[in-house]
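Hi,

Apologies if this is the wrong queue. I'm a grad student, and the batch job for Large ribosomal subunit protein uL1m from Oceanites oceanicus produced an output file that my downstream script rejects. I'm not sure whether the problem is my script or the file. Here is the sequence I used:
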Amino acid sequence: VLAPRRGWVFPGLDQRLAAAPALVSAAPPARPYAAAAKTAKKGSQKTKQEETKKKQVTRRWPLMSKPVDDVYLMWYYKRPSYDVEKAVGMLKKFQELDFTHPKQYVYINVFLDMALQKKKKVDPFASTVLLPYRFTDETNKVLVFTENEQEAEIARENGAAVVGGLELIKWILEDEIQVDFYVAVPAIMPKLIPLRNKLRRKYPSTKRNSLGHDIPKMLQLFREGLEYVVEDEHIIKTRIARV
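Support response: The file is valid. Your script probably expects a header line. Output copied below for reference.
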C-alpha cells in the first residue's frame, strides 16, 4: 500500500515511533566473545583457505552422449556434431518447416589453430578467396594502379572501377575516391608509398595477391572473391552459400 504519510495508513504510528527512543535507553549487552573472535581470525586463515578449496572442488556428472527419447534437458547431454553434407540437408529441411526464404545465406564459423611450435602465435590476418560456386551477384569495386596505357585498357575491359596513376593519390587521401580493393603493377609501387598508412591492409602486396602483372586474374579475384577476416585471434565468421 502506497500512501503520502505513514500515519494515514496506521493511525497513531507517529506517536509510537516518537516515544520509542525513551524505551531504548539501556546500554547494549556486553559481548564477551568479541575479543576471542578477533584472536581466532589470526590462526583461522589456513582453515578458511582449506574450506574454500573444498568448496571449489565440485563434482559434476559426465555428460551423456545420446538422449533416450525426444524430450530431454539439453545441458545433460553433449552437443551433437554433424558432417557438412548432413548439416546442409538439415538446414534445407528446417527452411521448409519454418517457411523462411530459400535464398537466405549460410554462415560458417571456422576455428583456426594459430599456435606455433614456439610460444608465439600467428597474428590475425585478412584474405580473399575465389569460391568455386558464386552465390551472389554483387561485385566489389576495384581500383587499378598503372601508368601503362595498354595495361589500363586491359583493366577497364575486365571491370575495373577506377584506373589511373599518380593523379589518384591526392583524391584517395582526400577520400574523393573510395573502393573496396586496390591492385597495382610492380612498376608503380615506389610512387605509392604516401598511401601506405591510408590504405593499411588494403595496400597492394604480393602476400594478398593484389600486386602483379596479371591484371585480369587480380580483378577476377577481388571483384568476385570473398574476403574473410580472423576475429578474436582465431575465428573466421563468414557466409559461404545460400540454402
